[in-house]
Amino acid sequence: FPSHDMDDMLPEGTEVYYRGHHGHVRFSDESYMTVCIKEFPKQRVRDVCIVVPPERWEEIELVNGNNIHSK
Q1: How many Å from the N-terminal Cα to the C-terminal Cα in the chain?
Q2: What pLDDT is attached to residue 64?
Q3: Three-state SS letters, the chain
Q4: pLDDT in tens, 7-62
Q5: CA 30: distance to chain centroid?
Q6: HSE of 45 in the Cβ direction (CA atoms, 13 Å)?
Q7: Which pick of 37, 41, 56, 69 has the fewest CB atoms within 10 Å?
Q8: CB atoms < 10 A from the CB of 47, how many?
C-alpha cells in the first residue's frame, strides 16, 4: 500500500459520497475507512458499510456542508 498520512482520514460521522453511494464515515484509521450507506438503528448488525482502502480515499467526495473537513 502507498503511504498515507493520518491527515488523509476523515472524522467519523462525516457525510460523504463514495462511488455513487451516499453515506457517512463510521470508522477511520490508517488501514481503511468504512462508509455506511444503510443503517438499521435497532439491528446494527444489518448495517451496510463499504470498506474503503487508502488507495481509494481520493474517490471519497464530501457532501456540501462538510467543507470544514477539506484538506
Answers
A1: 21
A2: 77
A3: CCCCCHHHCCCCCCEEEECCEEEEEEEECCCCEEEEEECCCCCHHHCEEEEECHHHHHHEEECCCCHHHCC
A4: 667 999 999 999 999 999 999 999 999 999 999 999 999 999 999 999 999 999 99
A5: 12
A6: 0
A7: 41
A8: 15
